[in-house]
Amino acid sequence: MSYLTKQKAGKILVGDTFQIARQAALAKESHANVIDATVGALFDDDQQFYEYKTVTRMIKRLAVAKHYAYAPTSGGDAFKKHISDWVFGPYATMITNEFHHDVVATPGASGALYNTFMNYLDEHDTLIMPDIYWTNYLVMLGNINAKHLTYPLFKEGAFHFDAFVDATKKVLEHHQKIVCLFNDPAHNPTGYSLSLDEWTRIYDYLNGLVTEGAEVIVLYDLAYLDYEGETHLESRRLFEALKAIETDILVILAFSGSKSFSLYGLRLGAQIALSRNKQHIKAFKNAAVYSARGTWSCPPSTGPLMLGQLFSDDLQTKKFAKELDRARVMLRARAEVFLGEAKIAGLPTYPYRGGFFITIPVEDPDQAFDRLAGIHIYTIPVDQGIRIAISSIPMSLITGMARRIKNALT
Ligand SMILES: Cc1ncc(COP(=O)(O)O)c(C=O)c1O
Q1: pTM for this one?
Q2: Of 28-37, 57-66, 385-394, which gets the smallest average pLDDT?
Q3: Long-range contacts of 232-238 (CB under 8 A, 24+ apart)
């Protein structure tokens, strides 16, 4: 018996990434040769935290009183512009001209996801998502008692479109509302990115559902947007697909300042909505600000103010872009070595296109985790796989790792 509400009684966080990362940290204290592949954060090849020096410089420019003062709940107009320009890049004008859109500041992409779940899923609704996913989605859904339905993410190494369609049909049998979640590009945990054709096909199909009378909400978690492709421009190419939206689909993007600016602890993020229907955006803004104020109240001030400093200074913006390019090159180099060696060793991986993680398909993730922990390699067990955070492993340790994993798992 507890004094908790019925909803919360018995809920306990187990198998969380942060908890497994703690296990790896403890193992490091007693063994020198531990490889910690749990951490979804960026570290350089000297195993130092990957700090964007330009970002730190901008933060240091701010007066103490600015950091400590309350920020507007929504983040404010300047925040909205900076986030839209950064996220959409060369497509920002297209978004402004062709869509209604708005932005609300959130504590990380987590806040954006949670705010969306809270405001768009009630007891009749079911979130549709692939069967391989960032496990914290389940905690967020569990926290509001929301239902979900998964479908196989891959068929022959590509997005399983037919399975997605089947999942929508199942939901539509009961309820004319689709809320579907995509984590793209550089999906956590596989590193897969949908192609432009795959995105366009999805929007074409969803347009059809809206025409037939369904409400359609696409929740688009792009936490790893800045670690896909070789350049800022290339990583934004996927927004070309937004042009395929011809109906009243509501798209809500979850942006992570944790990843894009290496500001994990500062909780910088945004919930960005766009639609051809003005009413959807007005309702989004009202509800998002209301529930933000009703939960975390307002975002930490430092992130939005840092963006103001950074994006009002062309020289600093260019310097930051160069630092980000270096991070992409570093990740690519690690991925190439790991994937190249995995191929030679006969170690299968899910299709990787970019980002922090590579995942190895396994039938029993917990058993695979134990076997790898036995050789001091700490990974994250996910549904149908073992996730390796190449973001946090230096090149010197990546080399030879695929062979060791293959041997331990066989
Ligand atoms: C897929 C995905 N979405 C969202 C997040 C949340 O990031 P944050 O809340 O730190 O911005 C993470 C963090 O690991 C993630 O991997």
Answers
A1: 0.96
A2: 28-37
A3: 232/89, 232/321, 232/324, 232/325, 233/89, 233/90, 235/185, 235/354, 236/88, 236/89, 236/90, 236/91, 237/196, 238/184, 238/185, 238/193, 238/194, 238/196, 238/199
